[in-house]
Specification:
The protein has 209 residues and is mainly alpha-helical. It is built from five helices and five strands; from the N terminus they run H-E-E-H-H-H-H-E-E-E.
Length: 209
Amino acid sequence: MVNVSFSRRRESILIKSRVPASAGMTKRADDRERITKEGVYVMAEESQTERDMKFALAGESQARRKYKAFGEKAKEEGYTQVAKLFKAAEMGETIHSGYFLNKLGQVKKTKENLQAAVDGETYEANKVYPAMMDDAEAEGREDVKTYVGFVRDVEALHARLFKEALDNLGKNKEVDYYICGGCGAVTEGKPDKCPVCGAPGAKFVKVEI
């Protein structure tokens, strides 16, 4: 499921530098890279098919998570059959996104995957979410700013855990991971309270594979 027209998606836009507004600075993305209106990065040397697969991957991934939430809501409201349908569609979107992810060569050896995870989480913690916090504050959305602050800290935590796993690859210690049901923080062992949002330990769920 990709509900964005290809003609619109291919347009690139100006990107504002994340600097104080008083600096009055804007810049266009590097010549090799463009960000589209839907927030997908594409490289100038990529084929159109590769670009299309990136958009498809983004769309299928979002649809997967959306249908999961829709299914949970349907189940909560007692619509069991509808919940099953959303679950089936979620599984289908997972298959689609997996295909595009692999075709784009984004799944590599574990060492490379860990480094990609470190880079991605670090970028989000240092660039993406601080900028979102500034935007939310400027628009008076303190509720959003507070939660995005939690997300920023969780991404930094993820980056640290991925880096430790990368540095110790092949000799990683056996630990149980727990995840906070409030902010998504990951901890080694069950804490008394969340180190990020302060939620009680009862909110943590053990991660099973």
